[in-house]
Amino acid sequence: MIKSTHIIVFVVLIVCSLLTKGQNHKPSAPSSDSFYRLRSVTEQVISNRGNAVFCLIENLDIDKNVHQATLALIDIASSQAQVLLKKDGYLDHLSWSKSDRFVYFLEDSRTGKRLVRMGLREKKVVSLSPGNLDVLSYKISNIGRIAIVAREPQQRSTERLVFGGESLQPAQIWVSEISGLSKFEKIPFPENIDYIDWSPNGEQLVFSHRPSATPHDLAFNSDLSVLSVRTGKIRTLVERPGMDVNPSWSPDGQRIAFLSHDNHEDYLGSTYLCIVSAEGGVPVNISSKIHERIIPVATPFQQWNNSGSAIYFSVPDRLTRTLYKFDLSGNVLETFSAEQEVDFSFSFQAHGNKVTYLTSNPLEPWKIMVADSAFHQKRVLFKPNQNDFQQRYKDVHWRAPDGQELEGILFEPERYDGKKPHALLAYLHGGPSSGFGWAFSPQVNSPDLAQIEPFPPHIFVSAGYLVFMPNPRGSGGYGQEFMKANVGNSPETEVRDVLAGVGFLIKIGIADSNKIGIMGWSAGGEESGAAIKDTNLFKAAVLGAATVDAAAEFGTQRHPDLTLSYYKGAPWEVPELYMKMSTIFHANRIKTPTLIVHGVEDASVPVGQAKELYRALSCLHVPVQLVMYPGQNHNFSDPQFMKDVAERSLHWFLKWMAPN
């Protein structure tokens, strides 16, 4: 049954509002239908022969209210695309067989995810993993063995009701001998398994593990071990404080690379690329001069070249990402970076000189590029959308009151001429250690749905607003010192930097001081709340999944490590700091009309935060509206709700501060 957005709002959503005086102007928002039809390439991998790319294209179907996934083959010589499979739902973890005759991927199943194989001649899909498992990842060895990391069904027990009980069901390894067609055997291990990789001869499996599936153990207690498939014996490879994850075996079998805190326990610490002998020993940090927090994701951050003499890894770098090449023979770092775009998901041909990767810029979702391994000859291989947005963007630089140089991105409407001050929306990113960059979804900066951004700047710019996206202190991509500059003073540090940026745009005649709005999601929502208590500059605000009471968040969120790290203690240890940094204790200073949007099932920032602020602003007779979306977690997954958040937010700004 197709749900109308209006029906969703009236019947299902819990909408609480107290609207006092406002403008009578009720302009209709421009259609966002074209934006929500955009497609994005989110995964790609080049074949061993280098003649084709296997890729995943994702989009939303708003009418059916579903995600859609398309698997395609792109011929490298002709750039022609052949659709292999299209379905509603999710697909991921793409790979080729060694012969290039088959492709593998994960797809939705009754129990979660299952591993399937498709023959490229007959296009027949065969399920490989046991039907009762939820497969998280897999790796195929050079000799055809398959290893999967999966969870068994949660047992019906009162233990599953324990708060944080997701850690009670650890992920484990299963191994099949012959291309997944023989029985998978479980490898018993007392801890939760995260990442795996085969040795080149297919006889050993390296894996990272931690005592439980909690983020705390990922950051503080993850180690590496090696399994001998023939004997079943497991030996410790790396065991030390902090995070050691995402192992990758070199093609010559001599070394294993992995991401690490390098023997430090620090939730906000830099993540380095380390290398250790496959036989064990003391790991070597090869990226010690690059002080960035690299977070492991499904797409490998490190990849070896064919001989194992060099390794590539990608690092956030201001508004973009830089690809580093570390030459083991001479211990030399080479860098490859792009201007005003973000490159990601590099796939190097196993036996050749080609590399394919994904690239995006502020006006184009992710597309596929092909180049030689030195990145001298590169071209667009596949572009999922025909039309780009006709908007403009540029980087902006300003200084904070203490002299710190800062930067951000300014989106401009197509017809904006810059001759007079214009209505501006400040959009604040989450994290707070993420950052805006030159990708189509500027806050995400890695391959994902084109519509994953909670407040897509393109929609607001199309309505006539300037959109300012600052990277204040606390953002990633600027080094460890910059990222930790807000510890003990967040969100106040970020707010000061943002206000300095907005003030700069007003001073140089770009922004109209009578038409400034602010919006943000997660930490960006928290900072937006802090901003409207500190100044009456903003004529309207939208707070998404925002923390307003840090002590209550500490007590109700599933894993409090992030809160403890930024506040440098628990509420009973530094109560004054928790009160100082929590907007709810200063709500009487807020005069700005505020829209609050939140997912009912949010485990990171529980929905009680939204209710607290709504109650306070209602009592204070501040124009406020609260919209709570059922079934949605911290990051929304329901396509119609995703669209509703963007359009509802736009209407809120149009109501209180329509553009010139």
Describe this structure in words.
With 660 residues, the protein is α+β, with helices and mostly antiparallel strands. It has a domain of 263 residues: Rossmann fold (3-Layer(aba) Sandwich), CATH 3.40.50. It is built from 11 helices and 37 strands. The strands form 8 sheets. Strands 1-37-36-35-34-32-33-31-30 form a 9-stranded mixed beta sheet, sandwiched between helices. Helix 5 packs across helix 6.
- Biggest sheet details: 9 strands, mixed
Q: Specify the overall morphology.
A: globular
> What is the name of the CATH topology of the domain at 395-657?
Rossmann fold
Write out the CATH superfamily name of the domain at 395-657.
Alpha/Beta hydrolase fold, catalytic domain
Given as residue ranges, the uncertain stretches (5+ residues, pLDDT < 50) are 1-30
Named at the architecture level, the CATH assignment of the domain at 395-657 is: 3-Layer(aba) Sandwich
Class based on secondary structure composition and strand pairing: alpha+beta
At the first level of CATH, the class of the domain at 395-657 is: Alpha Beta
Task: Indicate the percent of residues in helices.
Answer: 10-25%
- Find the count of extended strands (DSSP E, 2+ residues): 37
DSSP helical segment count: 11
Task: Write a compact overview of the structure shown.
The chain has eleven helices and 37 strands. The protein is of the alpha+beta class.
SSE diagram, text form:
Layout: H1 5-12, E1 14-18, E2 40-46, E3 52-61, E4 66-75, E5 81-88, E6 91-96, E7 102-109, E8 112-119, E9 125-127, E10 134-140, E11 146-151, E12 172-176, E13 185-187, E14 192-198, E15 204-210, H2 215-220, E16 223-228, E17 234-238, E18 244-249, E19 255-260, E20 272-277, E21 284-285, E22 302-304, E23 310-317, E24 320-327, E25 332-337, E26 342-348, E27 354-361, E28 364-372, E29 378-382, E30 392-399, E31 405-412, E32 422-428, H3 457-462, E33 466-471, H4 480-483, H5 492-507, E34 511-521, H6 523-534, E35 540-544, H7 550-556, H8 561-567, H9 575-581, E36 594-599, H10 608-619, E37 624-629, H11 639-657
Parallel strand pairs: 32-33, 32-34, 34-35, 35-36, 36-37
Antiparallel strand pairs: 1-37, 2-3, 3-4, 4-5, 6-7, 7-8, 8-9, 10-11, 11-12, 12-13, 14-15, 15-16, 16-17, 18-19, 19-20, 20-21, 22-23, 23-24, 24-25, 26-27, 27-28, 28-29, 30-31, 31-33
Helix pairs in contact: 5-6
